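Hi all, long-time lurker, first post. I run a small reading group and we've been trying to get comfortable going from sequence to structure in the token notation. Rather than ask abstract questions, I figured I'd post a concrete chain and ask someone more experienced to write out its structure so we can walk through it together at our next meeting. Sequence below, copied exactly:
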Amino acid sequence: MKPPDPPASESNGWTFWVGLLIGGVIMAFAVRGILADSRDTNPPELARWVVGAAILHDALLAPIATAAAVLLAWRAPAWWGRPVAFAAAMTAILVTFSIPLVRGFGRRAANPSTLPHDYGSNLALILAVLWATTLGVIGWRATARMRHGAPSTPPETAGPTAAEPGEQRRTDGGQVARRDPT
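-- Answer (accepted) --
Happy to help. Here is the structure in token form:
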């Protein structure tokens, strides 16, 4: 069965064209600034970096992140898989955006106020807090599950033996049906 087509206002309405116009103006402003300050921005090096980053993202980072997310969604129970997936995604974002700071791109010996902090240690601290919080959330969820008597195996991965007396589990992911006790 084919899903219904989205309404015209969602697929090609005026918001698309307004967004395209605003984005185009912002990109034109950025290119103008790069070219106007070409002595400082080094356009050929910047172009190599932007193209290289896009290739690295599309060829390596995005497939790895997608595979990890699919694997977690497929195999991990939601009570710990979702917090781990969130923390992993946040780690990837934080590390990616921190690379220029940690590597010291733009640091000038003549200007000590440019990139004055120890960004590697700060990144490690933020990641430690993120993962400690994630472990805390998982621990809290595990405690809540034990307190409420949740099964150790989620129902969707449990076999037919996980059904309670008088119940029959469907193996196709459907609802649990009550058997008539007589």
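A couple of things your group might point at:
The chain has six helices and two strands.
Residues 78-106+115-151 form one domain.
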